[in-house]
Amino acid sequence: MELSRIEQMNMDNLFCCVLAKGKDSSGEAFYIYFGIHMDNLEKLVATVKETGSFNPKDFQAAVLARHSGEPPKEVRDFLRERFSFSDNSVVLELA
Question: For the chain, which residues make up each domain, given as ranges?
Answer without folding.
Answer: 5-93
